[in-house]
């Protein structure tokens, strides 16, 4: 990207917490990085490379609540998307039969008998209301932080519990978020980010 000047419009960071009932259990349980770790590292690498203003970041992976939207935005997401939460709003009961054509709720099946369980007008209203309420709660949280725009949320606004029960801001939990724009080009920055940066350049 630096050499060609060509960048993607966006990068989607999909955390390992997400997934489908069709995934093998080992993949669901053991493969992938948690969203917040992957998101914070992606944001830090783009900032450090001086490219963050040119590439949007979309966060996905168990974005279920208004707070999870705000937390992802604090760590660097420009946009969030959600699949699992919308499936829950549709009536998913996590039967783990997504790939069998035997979904008992009718969501992931082509069996006409089972599809009758998915009453589209009813479910559409549920999904709409869930989405509307979730966004409303996210905006309420942003307002409670004293901010008037989602793009003003920063890691310092969100507190988390550390390994030993101490209360930390997300900027302390993820210190690599404090990187300065272009720092990696000068071989500067937090050690974990520099390690990834140098590994990618080999």
TrEMBL record:
Domain Glutamate synthase: 7-147
Transmembrane segments: none
GO molecular function: glutamate synthase activity
Organism superkingdom: Eukaryota
One of the protein's GO biological processes: glutamate biosynthetic process
Stored InterPro entries: Aldolase_TIM, Glu_synthdom
Family: Belongs to the glutamate synthase family.
Alphabetical list of PANTHER family matching this protein: ARCHAEAL-TYPE GLUTAMATE SYNTHASE [NADPH]
Listed name of the protein: Glutamate synthase domain-containing protein
